[in-house]
């Protein structure tokens, strides 16, 4: 499939089937803002749940946090964002497009191809608002541009309350906001997006080993959830690309239809943040190592991923077209843990009230344990295709024989193989299949 064609197909399927919609579409839409529809929100929640499970619940050394979006304005002075969180912009003199300088390829404007630009100017990407009834410079508050700072300002709270000592990590999922200048590429670059970030605190001497370990762990996570290996690569940042706080950074990149692009960055933030917050708050954020009677600032390794980018990569990677009986079958081959719907219950004859009642009963029972849908609004062939298009793992068909032999047909999404399963064993069967 042509790459651009693939992206168009994913965007179109996302809208048609309710994964992702343009924000405020009835008013003409809002740039770089997207809404997740019924299947999209399930997929995105599953991505977040899989991440949380892997980095918090399946480890002994990471705890969770959910910090507020609004933070004391001094946070952003300390973190360096007020001074350095800038995009360098130029205007194209020919087409007047405002561009990020680092998005200009080979000295040419990506819109019109001209090479005549205005002087560079710095533009801070943080979004501001005012808190309280009066709009004044004294109550300016920023919408956080990264979730990380909520973790650093809670470092001491967590040390004290959770009795942690390095090495340990704090994980958080939450919204971040950036006034991105260059929009586009669907949900890849948004102004309001979600991050999944870990700040892993370690002894300075162990930081390099820890950095390498997290790069491998995070890359493996994407592979385990089904992203094809040939679509993943690591890219080490050159020194002049590094963020102001980083001593090293490696991106996990995915081969999107629009090119290799960053899914997640793993950075060595050194002791920059804890030192800065100590200085600006007057609180000592060093860790006291009692046995060695030593106080030190831990180094921080930060795996920082985007929920929306990961969701988009899983969606693109899952998209398949196959020829079946002379027709094209579109199927989203999601990993089972990510699939928005696990089981669809489909009555073969919607006019037969006994079949419909049995199918609805089966759904009532299964939905206590797995995400299910019931659909009787078309012929069975069409119902299967609809479920394939949203990546439903199993279809359960209830037919006339089911009323007699108390069995149903279970169809697996990728192989399309069908099996008769006894209704009283159905939940156990599906639970086993879904956990494989
Ligand atoms: N705390 C470090 C940090 O924020 P970043 O590389 O700026 O680092 C981390 O962002 C991740 O957040 C990126 O790898 C990407 O997945 C996601 N991200 C950043 N900006 C984004 C945007 N405008 N839209 C969607 N996701 C974004």
Automatic annotation (TrEMBL):
Keyword hit for Transit peptide: no
GO molecular function annotation: ATP binding; glycine-tRNA ligase activity
Family: Belongs to the class-II aminoacyl-tRNA synthetase family.
Enzyme class per UniProt: ligase
Organism classification: unclassified sequences, metagenomes, ecological metagenomes
Cellular compartments per GO CC: cytoplasm
PROSITE patterns: AA_TRNA_LIGASE_II (PS50862)
PANTHER family noted in UniProt: DNA POLYMERASE SUBUNIT GAMMA-2, MITOCHONDRIAL, GLYCYL-TRNA SYNTHETASE/DNA POLYMERASE SUBUNIT GAMMA-2
Alphabetical UniProt keywords: Aminoacyl-tRNA synthetase, ATP-binding, Cytoplasm, Ligase, Nucleotide-binding, Protein biosynthesis
Record EC number: 6.1.1.14
GO biological process terms, semicolon-separated: glycyl-tRNA aminoacylation; small molecule metabolic process
Occurrences of domain Aminoacyl-transfer RNA synthetases class-II family profile (ranges): 8-340
Pfam families: HGTP_anticodon, tRNA-synt_2b
NCBIfam families to which the protein is assigned, alphabetical: glyS_dimeric, PRK04173.1
Name of this protein: glycine--tRNA ligase
